[in-house]
Specification:
heterodimer, A: 146 residues, alpha+beta, OB fold (Dihydrolipoamide Acetyltransferase, E2P), B: 231 residues
């Protein structure tokens, strides 16, 4: 084998080893890299009160209560467990029931969260508004995009 | 046939033939793309803000593509000792850096109205920020080391080490919970983006690539001239 191909193989092997090493590190520190926990993960892990964390999930249907202007209470769900969220502040435009969101805040003794920030998460589906109307008219909407 | 990709004099000849037609095609594609963006429909969820996508996504793709090209040239340059690879590496690093910056700025402007935050430290955003820092380091490395051979090899090795970041960026949205949504176009099932929005997106991607190629050709030509002068 010529010298240049030996070099090529050496470079490729080095890259593969380096990549594998880095991936092992990343997957073993997954807990620190995830941006948010799901409600089930939060309840399983029994996190101590007064710890700052982020929880992601869907806003549970008909759980949203507006107590006063900019003072809200709602539930976040991953369809198995629910977490009650208290939040004072402005909600993002995309916030609505059954929308995916991420909240950041402190957890209290009853596993409720006093949120300091609410982020809206949007999905990877892009569609013209006119097509949504058309789908709704024919009762196809929830079937395809839920 | 593809000798112009590794041979400077062939590259110069090829560049002289292709540059003018390329500029015409590019301006045509760019105008067509902007026209299609203007008439593209509003999103059912995001409304008008969805149009940031037509800048954000092409620049993100090209930031990754530019780095991938640099990585391939580094492998070729190091193993087959082709000096032209290092010319390309030096010439296109700033182009990739600009695309990355464009992606970060437009993404930030998209994040504020949609998510409610200019910036969050989730896996996708952080890995792209690291890509930008790597690009800056490559540009700075070009100013170091008096000896050109040492400098070129160091940069090529640095580019290869940094290339491990590319799969991390691509798959970060699948491996970890992120605020950034997963891929819409490059997934195994059919793209989850309506055809009326996919068309302007792809045309803008072509336009951005062509702009990148034009700047790359000009920069590589200039770099070849500089090296001839000092050889």
């Amino acid at each position: 084998m010529s010298l240049r191909f030996q070099r090529l193989i050496l470079i490729l092997l080095t890259l593969i080893m380096l990549g594998a090493a880095l991936l092992l590190i990343l997957f073993n520190t997954k807990q620190n890299i995830v941006f948010f926990y799901t409600p089930s993960e939060l309840l399983e892990n029994n996190i101590a009160p007064d710890k700052k964390l982020r929880i992601g999930g869907y806003v549970k249907k008909s759980s949203f209560v507006k107590k006063s202007l900019n003072n809200y209470e709602f539930k976040i769900t991953d369809n198995t467990n629910d977490i009650v969220i208290f939040y004072k502040g402005m909600l993002p435009d995309l916030f609505r029931e059954e929308q995916g969101i991420v909240v950041e805040g402190l957890i209290d003794k009853n596993n409720n969260i006093v949120a300091s920030k609410v982020y809206a998460k949007h999905d990877e589906n892009y569609m013209p508004a006119s097509i949504k109307k058309e789908l709704e008219k024919n009762n196809q909407w929830k079937k395809n995009y839920k | 046939m593809f000798k112009f990709l590794i041979n400077p004099s062939r590259f110069n000849k090829f560049a002289d033939i292709i540059l003018k037609p390329l500029i015409i095609i590019t301006s045509f594609t760019l105008i067509l793309g902007l026209f299609l963006i203007y008439f593209s429909p509003l999103d059912y969820q995001q409304g008008l803000t969805v149009k940031i996508m037509y800048i954000h996504v092409p620049s993100a793709w090209l930031a990754l593509l530019t780095y991938a090209i640099m990585a391939i040239y580094s492998i070729i340059g190091l193993s087959f000792k082709i000096p032209f690879s290092f010319v390309v590496n030096k010439a296109i690093a700033p182009i990739g850096a600009v695309f990355t910056l464009l992606c970060l700025i437009s993404g930030s402007m998209w994040g504020k109205p949609m998510w409610g935050a200019w910036w969050v430290w989730d896996a996708r955003l952080t890995s792209v920020a690291i890509l930008f820092i790597i690009y800056l380091l490559i540009i700075f490395l070009n100013q170091t080391f008096e000896n050109r051979d040492v400098r070129e090899k160091t940069i090529a090795i640095f580019i290869l080490i940094g290339s491990i970041n590319l799969p991390i960026i691509k798959f970060s949205v699948d491996w970890w919970n992120t605020l950034h949504q997963p891929a819409s176009v490059s997934k195994l099932s059919s793209p989850s983006i309506d055809i009326s929005m996919l068309q302007p997106l792809l045309i803008m991607t072509v336009a951005f690539s062509l702009i990148g190629i034009i700047i790359a050709i000009l920069r590589i030509k200039a770099e070849i001239l500089i090296r001839k002068k000092y050889l």
